[in-house]
Design goal:
9 helices; 5 strands
Length: about 220
Amino acid sequence: MGPVIAIVIAIDGPAAAGKGTLSKRVAQAYGFAHLDTGALYRAVGVSVLRAGGDPADAEAAARAARALRPDDGILNDPALRNDEAAQAASKVAVVPAVRAALLDFQRRFAATPPGGAPGAVLDGRDVGTVVCPNADAKLFVTASVEVRAERRLKELRERGIPAIPSDVLEDMKARDARDSQRTVAPLLPAADAFVLDTSALDADQAFAAATAFIGTKTGFGPKV
C-alpha cells in the first residue's frame, strides 16, 4: 500500500472577498489543515523585527523565512494583523530568497499537512496558479470592489480604526491594480478554477457553493 496523498484545495482571491472566512470554514468542515499564505510574509517580517533586525535586510529576512515552521505560534499571533506587520511584510516580500523559502514551505504544507490531516486548504493570491497548480479543487473568491470596500470599512471600524469610505475604496482599487498587474504571480483565477462571486452571498451561501464544487472535484463532502 503506497503513501496516502493529501487532498489539496486552493482558494485565491482579492482582499475582503471572503476567502479567509470561507477557507477556514472549509478546512474545519473537512477536517483539513488550513494555511493563510499571506500570513507567512507577515510572520517573517514580525520575526525579523522581534529579533531586532530590519525587514529590509535580505539576509535577515531569508533566515527568518527558512526558520518558519507549520507549528510556529507566530502564524496565529494577533500582532500579524497590525500595520507594523503589514509594512514589514511588504519589505520581506520583495526578497527572492524569502519568496523561494515560503514557496517551499507552502508546498510542503500541502503535500504533508500538519497533524496528520488528510488534506490541506491554502488561501492566498497565487495558490492555484503558482503554489499548487495541481490542486484537487481550485476556487477564486471575488466580489465587486464596492462590496469589498464596504466589508473592509466595517472590519476597520469594528477594530476601532477610523476610516473614510472613499479612502478605503481607493486603496482597494489601487491594491487590486498592483496585484493584478505585477509581473510575478499576478492575481488572477487559474484556468480551471471555480470563480465564486460573493457580492450577493452570505457566508452560508458561499460555503454551500464552495463545498458543492469541491464535491464534484474530489468526491468528498464536508464531515460537519
